[in-house]
């Protein structure tokens, strides 16, 4: 009975009422079953937790007894609510054959104004989609810029920490002295590099053996002196 009724109700009664009558009946039956189970659990809790209950220390017996009583009640509920379900399908939710349901009505052709309004809505929605895609791309670009800025910030903080470590090692306490110290060390390193470059250029163009070459003139730095200067930095 139920499969045929379910198929018929889905096709006709659901169209008429706007909802499935089977879902309503199932909701009622399931709710009653839930109430029965909750009631049985309440009885079990009372028998086990009430200080005046003579069965509070016999959990196994109480649980078994409540389960048996619950089974009897559920059998009775199933029996009588099967009749309730049948009554609802035949007398409450049944739609007479002469009644027209929305599915039986012929479809009306859309007017020209309705077509134009629908086209306008489609165009508006397409424009919104295009605009949202543009905003999404801009957000992605902004996110990339933010991530790049965070990376640069982290690198700057790491460089600052390195400079502070060098200044502390060289006992340069204050920020202006730190800056002056870094600038001075950088200038010394630049001058040393320029002097070494000049020596290398002169050596490359001088055919005289290195042992017979004169000592570097003022303003030039030998390789040994260069190593000593770099060691001091």
Can you offer a commentary on this structure?
The protein is an all-alpha fold. The protein is 76% helix and 0% strand. The protein contains six helices and no strands. Helix 5 (175-205) runs antiparallel to helix 6 (223-232). It is elongated.
What's the arrangement of secondary structure elements?
Elements lengths: L1 H16 L3 H29 L9 H34 L19 H58 L5 H31 L17 H10 L1
Helix pairs in contact: 2-3, 5-6
One letter per element, helices H and strands E, the order comes to: HHHHHH
Beta strands, count: 0
Shape: elongated
Number of helices: 6
Determine the structural class based on helices, strands and strand pairing.
Answer: mainly alpha
Stretches where pLDDT falls below 50 for ≥5 residues? Answer: 1-7
Q: How large is the radius of gyration? A: 46 Å
How large is the share of residues in beta strands?
under 5%
On the 0-100 scale, what is the average pLDDT?
76
Cα(first) to Cα(last) distance is: 98 Å
Instruction: Give the biggest sheet.
Output: none
Q: Descriptors for this entry?
A:
233 residues, 76% helix, elongated
Précis, in short:
The protein is mostly helical and 233 residues long. It contains six helices and no strands.
């Amino acid at each position: 009975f139920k499969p045929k009724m379910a198929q018929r109700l889905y096709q006709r009664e659901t169209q008429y009422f706007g909802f499935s009558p089977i879902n309503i009946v199932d909701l009622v039956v399931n709710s009653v079953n839930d109430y029965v189970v909750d009631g049985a659990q309440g009885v079990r809790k009372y028998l086990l937790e009430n200080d005046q209950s003579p069965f509070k220390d016999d959990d196994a017996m109480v649980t078994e007894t409540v389960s048996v009583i619950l089974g009897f009640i559920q059998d009775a509920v199933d029996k009588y609510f099967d009749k309730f379900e049948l009554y609802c399908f035949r007398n409450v939710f049944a739609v007479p054959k002469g009644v027209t349901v929305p599915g039986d009505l012929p479809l009306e052709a859309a007017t020209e104004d309705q077509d134009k309004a629908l086209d306008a809505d489609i165009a508006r929605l397409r424009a919104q989609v295009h605009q949202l895609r543009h905003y999404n791309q801009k957000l992605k670009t902004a996110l990339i810029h933010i991530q790049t800025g965070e990376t640069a910030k982290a690198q700057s903080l790491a460089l600052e920490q390195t400079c502070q470590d060098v200044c502390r090692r060289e006992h340069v306490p204050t920020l202006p002295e730190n800056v002056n110290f870094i600038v001075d060390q950088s200038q010394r390193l630049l001058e040393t590099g320029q002097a070494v470059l000049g020596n290398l250029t002169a050596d490359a163009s001088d055919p005289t053996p290195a042992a017979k070459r004169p000592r570097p003139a003022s303003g030039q730095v030998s390789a040994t002196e260069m190593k000593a200067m770099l060691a001091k930095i």
